[in-house]
Amino acid sequence: MRLAKYLAHAGVASRRAAETVIAAGRVSVDGEIARDPARDVGEESRVSVDGRALKGAEERVAYAVHKPIGVLSTAKDTHGRPTVVGLVDKDPTNPSEHPRLYPVGRLDADSSGLILLTNDGELANRLTHPSFEVPKTYRAKLGGGPVGDGALRALRRGVGLEDGPTAPARARRVKADVIELTIHEGRNRQVRRMCEAVGHPVRALERVAFGPLRLDGLAPGAYRRLSDGEVEDLRAAAAGRPSRDAGGRATGGRRGPL
After folding, report:
1. What is the CATH class of 135-210?
2. What is the pLDDT of residues 119-174, one digit of tens each?
3. DSSP, res 146
4. What confidence tens digit (pLDDT) does each residue in 53-78 have?
5. Domain residues of the chain, as ranges?
6. 62-120+215-239 with 135-210: one CATH topology?
7. Quick one: which of 17, 94, 95, 197 is 20 to 30 A from 166 by CA?
8. Can you name the CATH fold of 3-53?
C-alpha cells in the first residue's frame, strides 16, 4: 500500500492532506524520514507521524452532523472557537479508542446544515473532489424580492463568476423568497455568489442534503453515526452508481439540472 493511502486509512488525514504531511518530513517509516507519498508500506512496516507510532488502519467510521451557525468546519481551532468535530462526543477517560475525525469539505461559519465527519480518507476524497460530481443541496432564503423564473433559469444554466462560470445547477422555488439549489462543485462560498450574481443575496443558508443523505430529523448540534448501507450509498454516489432508497430499492444515478 502506498504511504499516503496508509496514512489515510490510519485516520491521519485525507489522502491529499497526507501527502502534505509527508512532504513536511513529519512521517517516518522504520525509523527513517519518508518524503515519498508513493512509497510502499506493508503490515510489518513501522510508521510514525510526529514521533507517534501508528497502529495501522482504524475502523472506518462516518457521522452526519447538523452544523449550527457559528461552528467552524474544522477539526480544531487555535482560537478555541467551537468546531464540528467537537460536537461528536468522545469518552474523556479513553480518548485513544476514538478515531481521529475530520470534516468532509466545508460549510461557512455563517451557514448551517449537514456536514459529514469521517476518518476514511479515500471516502472523503471521493466525496469532495469535483471530478466525482457528488451533489450537495442547499436551501437558501434570499433577499432582492420574490425569486423569478429568470433567476432560476440562470442558475440552471450556470452563472458567470469571477473565477469562471459554474456548472449547471438544479434549482427550484420553495417559497417566493426561498429556493433549493443543488450543485456538485465546491468553490468558496459558491451558493452565496451564485445567488448574488442573479440579483438575490443570501440571507440564510442551510445544506439539506449531501449526495443521498438528507438532514431530515437531525436537530442543530446533533449527530449520528452512518450505517454501513449509508456509507455504501455515499460510495455509490461518488462512483455514479445508483443508490438505494429507504426501502432498499435502487434509485437513479446522477441527474441533470431541473
Report:
1. alpha beta
2. 888 888 889 887 888 999 999 999 999 999 999 999 999 999 999 999 999 999 99
3. S
4. 887 666 788 999 999 999 999 888 88
5. 3-53, 62-120+215-239, 135-210
6. yes
7. 17
8. 3.10.290
C-alpha cell at 60: 472506518
pTM for the complete prediction?
0.74
Instruction: Output the nine-digit C-alpha cell for 203.
Output: 440571507
CA 180 – CA 257 distance, rounded (Å): 12
The answer to whether 202 touches 111, Cβ cutoff 8 Å, is: no
Quick count: other Cβ atoms within 10 Å of Cβ 155? 27
- CA dist., res. 93 & res. 217, Å (int): 30
Return the C-alpha cell found at 240: 455514479
The three grid cell numbers given for residue 127, joined into one nine-digit string: 466525496
Do the beta carbons of residue 102 and residue 116 sit within 8 Å? no
108 catalytically annotated: yes
CA distances from 56 to 17, 24, 53, 141, 221 (A): 18, 21, 9, 45, 31
Q: How far apart are CA 191 and CA 183, in angstroms?
A: 8
How far CA 175 is from CA of 111, 140, 207, 213, 222, in Å, comes to 19, 10, 17, 23, 27
Q: Which entry of 77, 108, 120, 228 is annotated as an active-site residue?
A: 108
Single-letter residue type at 123:
L
pLDDT tens string 207-230: 999 999 999 889 999 999 999 999
pLDDT above 50: residue 247? no
* Rg over CA atoms, the chain: 20
